[in-house]
Amino acid sequence: MPFLLCEIMFENLTNKFEEIFSSLKKAPSLSEKDVDEGLRGIRQALLEADVALPVAKKLIENIRPKAIGQEIVRSTSPGQMIVKIVYDELVSFLGDKESQLNFNNIPPISIMLVGLQGSGKTTTTAKLAKHIEVNNKKKILMVSLDIYRPAAQEQLKILGEQNSIITLPIIEGQLPIDICKRALNAAKLNGADVILYDTAGRTQIDLQMMNEIKQIQSTINPTEVLLVADSLTGQVATDVASQFKKTVDISGIILTRADGDGRGGAAVSMKYVTEVPIKFLGIGEKVDNFEIFHPERIANRILGMGDIVSLVEKASKDIDQETLKKTEENLKKGKFSMQDYLEQLKQMKKMGGIEGVMSFLPGVSKIKSQMDKAGVDEKIINGSRRKRIANGSGTDVATINKLLKQFRLMSDMMKKMSKGDLKGMSDKGIPPELFNQLK
Asked: Where is the domain boundary, 94, 128, 163?
């Protein structure tokens, strides 16, 4: 699921942009009228993606003078120049670069998570703890300050136990400020580098909530105050972020449930509206369903330009290098067995499946459409179905035949690739456009 994040989150926006840019790229030259028509389409796409109206208007205002400037008129590829201008402005709105967490203080460093009730703060606290532990090699102490929501403290305790992360023991009836003071002492005693504070949320922003957050912030002096916002609420999430920013010194945003929204408007709007960076994206319920927010990579994927860097990073993390090496050796010998094919399917599953991999390649919408037409089925071999062939596996002869056909196609492709020859592959029933993207 994590690997499909940006395909899902920005699916509608990407599809619209690809349509607009496709027509612009075909034109040998672009008049001011052509540019304005394209910009109207972009503005409409942004609004449909739940981007805040002021943000959409400002983005178009920034793009237009550059899009009708001399560099476009003189360009040999005006359509490509338009794409570059939109990309640059989109990156500027999303944030110029990846924003790192601030660990520049004497340990234990305090990081505070705030947000409305139901935004996913408690689960996000555990995800962030695991991320810091794995990537920054720091010992974490998780602390629940939510004494209002039933079982909120217990929930964080259970998440800690499930993921081997230390949580502060619960003392019934203790107030948030007293819990903070106890946490600071406990962190010094057990050698924790970072304390993550899961604060209480409310169904709406109120004076009592904000006063408590201010008191907590004053007590623990955090290096980071991270607003956890539900991306599914779109425009509402942007409004909530603005209100928190007026009251608390927010240093960054974590967008949750990013895997459930096909629009992505909250991500495009938040950085511009709050002037603080989006630092992470949360997806799903698992503790590792958590991604660093890379503005330039996100912009690439929104515009259908792919994200090869993230693909390589994902591959290096998830693929079994020993298995890959064995398959590579077989290919060099001109061999590709059914076992090799099975291993390739397993590796592909780890990376989010074929669609997950394709979502990181240029022209994702076009590729996905071609895959749907080709009828690629990843579920032929999985679980109990591969225990026995045909009758014993609960499948029928047609399914087995389909598997064998796909294996033969893959085998032919692998052998050709091992010889550096991609010619003639379309004759075997593989869409030529797909291989043009993969060359």
From this structure: 94
62-86 confidence digits (pLDDT tens): 988 888 876 665 655 777 778 888 8
Distance in angstroms (rounded) separating the CA atoms of residues 240 and 201: 12
Give me the number of domains the chain comprises. Answer: 3
pLDDT of 191 reads: 93
Range of the domain at 30: 2-94
What pLDDT is recorded for position 72?
A: 60
- pLDDT value at residue 30: 72
- Domain end, chosen from 257, 274, 305, is at 305
Residue 156 to residue 126: CA distance in whole angstroms: 7
Q: Is residue 287 located within the same domain as residue 163?
A: yes
- Give the Å distances, CA to CA, from 410 to 16, 341, 425, 426: 32, 8, 10, 12
Is 101 within 8 Å of 132 (Cβ atoms)?
yes
Same domain (yes/no): 176, 265: yes
Q: Are residues 135 and 261 in the same domain?
A: yes
Residue 50's φ and ψ, nearest 5 degrees, are 70, 25
Identity of residue 81: M
- Over residues 121-143, the mean pLDDT reads 95
Q: What is the pLDDT of residues 161-174, one digit of tens each?
A: 999 999 999 999 99
Judge whether 100 lies within some domain: no
End-to-end CA separation in angstroms for the chain: 26
Same domain, 288 and 333: no
pLDDT tens, residue by residue, 257-296: 776 655 567 777 888 888 889 999 887 778 988 888 888 8
104 falls within a domain: no
- Which contacts qualify for 39-48: CB closer than 8 Å, 24 or more apart? 39/63, 39/64, 39/67, 41/16, 42/17, 42/86, 44/16, 45/12, 45/13, 45/16, 45/17, 45/20, 46/13, 46/265, 46/268, 48/12, 48/16, 48/263
Strand order of the sheet with strand 140-144? Answer: 166-167, 140-144, 194-198, 109-114, 224-230, 252-256, 278-282, 290-292
